[in-house]
Automatic annotation (TrEMBL):
InterPro entries: Pdiesterase2 (IPR000396), RibonucZ/Hydroxyglut_hydro (IPR036866). Belongs to the cyclic nucleotide phosphodiesterase class-II family. GO terms for molecular function: 3',5'-cyclic-AMP phosphodiesterase activity; 3',5'-cyclic-GMP phosphodiesterase activity. GO terms for biological process: cAMP catabolic process; negative regulation of glucose mediated signaling pathway. This is 3',5'-cyclic-nucleotide phosphodiesterase pde1. SUPFAM superfamilies: Metallo-hydrolase/oxidoreductase. It comes from Zygosaccharomyces mellis.
Amino acid sequence: MASFEVTVLGASGGPDVGATQCFLIRPFGWRGLESVCIDGGAGSTQIAKMLAGETRNGLTESFYERDYEPVNRFFDSNAPVRQGLSDSTLHALNNSPRITSYRVAQVYESIKGYYVTHPHLDHIAAMVIDSPLIFNSQIPMNKTIWGLPFTTDALKRFIFNDSVWPNLIHSGGQRLKTEALADQVTTTNSTFTNFEVTPFRVSHGLAAHHPREKISSTVYLFRDKITDHCIIICGDLEPDSDEPLLSKLWSYMASNIPLHKIKAIIIECSSPMTIKELYGHMSPARLAKELSHLQRTYGYKQRPDMNVIITHVKNYCSPKDPRLVILDEVRQESQKLGLQGIRFSIAIKGYTFYL
Ligand SMILES: [Zn+2]
Ligand SMILES: [Zn+2]
């Protein structure tokens, strides 16, 4: 049985304005409309499109070999995924007016907060542009932006500063607030009290202008206290170089969570193997190597039974959809390393995974 509903509002690594990384998460079968988001690259516009049923049946946008591809090409044949918002969300909307804008407002109001991985625009844009809706509503609502201090500080200094965007954090009577988390310190989500959330700082390459300055990002580990199931959701990241960061995450997992309890790893793989300059991101070979590292940390007596859902693929000029290229390459690289028990899929906007 599933423990998590993960709706993909956006999963592009850009440029795809309004559809970059954002996952809406709730406990499986939750009766209300409440949710939390990981990142905020997509938001109310995507919710509206899903509620209006814009997505073509069985097809998804591609704009490469064909403009629309059969969506099942992007999923493992056993991936627990269905089109649209989760069944329980739609059920909770049953008695609402049949006007999409009302329903969008209700789903948006019920987003209790955002766990932001890092403050790059493709991870925050829609969260910021949607934020005035918090104050337009008749219904009092509060949202919290959680993140490691490098994220919450940057949002306060460089985004909500009355120059780039109105300072809704200080002027808003606490309706929108930031809350800094500590690296590797577990907190319980205040809405979903069975969800424990642990952030891990990871590396995201070097600054473009100051190549000695390191850029950080975050991986969030969500654990359901009742079922002990976990999902790992990554922001942008690269393998460890001089600091053990990802290896600390794998060791933490191996010490605290049985391998078969990891339901899914949602992880970026920005570019296929032909792209050599990765700018702090993963490639299919790097991703397979990390999964092999995880298996090695657990030892070979435990076998995984998990979904690896690839997100943040960058669009570029090419004859073939880079997501399909990456999916093939990741499967091949994993086979070379002898990995077993992993189902690979691509995160496709407008679809919900039941994990
Ligand atoms: Zn980034
Ligand atoms: Zn990004």
